[in-house]
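sorry for the late reply, my laptop died twice this morning and i had to redo everyting from scratch. anyway the thing you sent over, i finally got around to it. pasting the sequence first so we're on the same page, its 74 residues, then the predicted structure underneath. double check i copied it right bc i was rushing
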Amino acid sequence: MRVFVTGCDGYIGQVLVPLLQRAGHEVTGLDSGLFASCVFPGQPRPELPVIWQDVRDVVPETLVGFDAVLHLAG
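ok and here's the structure:
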């Protein structure tokens, strides 16, 4: 399943994305980078394609081809 995760680089996103990837999903993220300097100690950032953009600037065409959107952005 192709999953689009907004807020992928935030506190919840950094935990959820690896869970989705281990379950076999193809994950793409969207994040503004607001928490780019915040990481969990001892846990590497998940590797995934990320659109570095504010969630308020997303256009409908950005979501074409995804099976699910998990909205974690604030």
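The radius of gyration is 12 Å.
thats about all i looked at so far, will dig more tmrw
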